[in-house]
Amino acid sequence: MGSTEEEYDFIVVGAGPSGSVLASGLARSAQKPSVLLLEAGGDNKNAEYLVPADRFALAFSQPSLNWGYKTAPQKHLKGQQIDYSRGKGLGGSTAINFSCWIVGADEDFNEWARKVDDTAWEWKEVKERFKRIVTYHTEIPEEHRKFIEPKVEDHGVNGPLHLTYADTWEKGVGDVFVAAEEVGLGTVKDVNSGKPIGMGMGATCMYKGVRTTAASFLEDVPPNLTIKTHSPIAKVMLSSSKVATGIQTIDGRTYHAKKEVVLSAGALNTPQILMLSGIGPSDELAKHKIPVLHEMPEVGLNLQDHAFCGATLITKPGTEGRMVFENDADAVKAARAQHAKDKTGILNSLYCSIPMGYFQNDAIMASEEFAALDPYDQKHLKKPTVPHYEIATHVPPLYIGDYQLQPTDCYLSCLNFIMNPHGTGTVTLASSNPEDAPIIDPNFGSHPYDRRVMIEGYRKMIDLLQAPVLKKDTVKLVGLPKGMSDEEIWEYCSETMGSSWHMCSTVRMGKSGDKGACVDTDFRLNGVKGLRVVDLSVIPLLPNNHTQSIAYLVGQTAAEKMIAEYRLDK
What pTM did the predictor assign? Predict the structure, then answer.
């Protein structure tokens, strides 16, 4: 396809949560600037992609929705190459993620604000901004309100993204909250209150029987917002005076920006696009014979992510019903027909109520690994709302070891996640060809503190699974280390660890004078005019949450800042 001469006020690259929220916000402002939103994938409008019960399977069953990345072999995880799925198409990774809405700890945002010297990131500001993003339906089945009961006044009621709790919770979910109380972990009625410590449950990205994604912001598109799918980017075009003038697609089209280009391609593809455009570490660009147009050594560094490991309880017949249902072809067929007809039935409850808890741990804070941390980091980790690890239950049976699941089995599967990881990784180029995947090395397990958190959190996860309320229905605990010593737990985790796909911080934000920062607190790329980065690349720390909420927040914040800067609301 040949070159075009199309010109827009703003060009946004990437229709994930950050890009969709930003493009929509700019286009719907009073001044109605012309906005072009470019997306590498398709429109993702197939109704089969939006079934709530498929939330854990969609990334693997629909290759067209997934970039399909793998990490480089992990040095500290016995050479594992870990799945690093990234969403493709309208909605980005919100189209294939696990639909969990968790915003994190209030002190994470206060720390973010301190790091970048901007009160816009403080919890009191962020909490109100989240309300503008979501409509948070707080209705909970009555029998579960003693454990989970968010208050409507604490959440949004008019945002484009609808969040709900399942009308019917899967059998046995309530026992997890009893178990958390029994073993001293405790519960929290609203994990999204900014004070997440305890076993809780976040809302799910679904509404009226349909998965909700960032494409919610792209409905009823105004005429000044142009969306072009199947438009992967080759590079940003820069003038000799380091001004971003537009972008070029892989198939040779060029689009010009009168005001700004914004990269919202995510924490893996945004640094790749920058480097392909001649912006990045000079040695990395020279390696691939890419002319250095603007040296920026930090591009692609500081990659952070939440890693996890798990175990599974095999439970007595009748304690839950996933396997029995999934192995009954007639029942599955009938359920899909019912959902296709009127968006009701079991496919709105299966896998749709996931207890997720955030916890602190005395053994971690008493460890030599904790003592070796910078005193400032220790102070942050001691704040009462900042968790050290997360436990989630009622996930698919990822950790069963040598056990062979039978069609009539019942199970309760559980994951332990490292929060506040201290190890960092990199995104580098495989070649100068934009169609080649970047080299992604999250460097999991490289930091002693992260290993300590995994070990202690894993022990607490096993304690939870052995609580009296669960033990009475337990047949067998599977997917375990050989023993529970530090060495045995880490040995097992190093062979089986996975990624939450919460990658971030590869084009980091910082305050004036921060030599490690790539963008300022208004998302402007340092040293280049007319170019911003608005996605999870920029966040200066990995919050203790599930990061899709932050991707939406980044888009909303950028929209508000840019609308104010350009006086688009006048």
Answer: 0.98
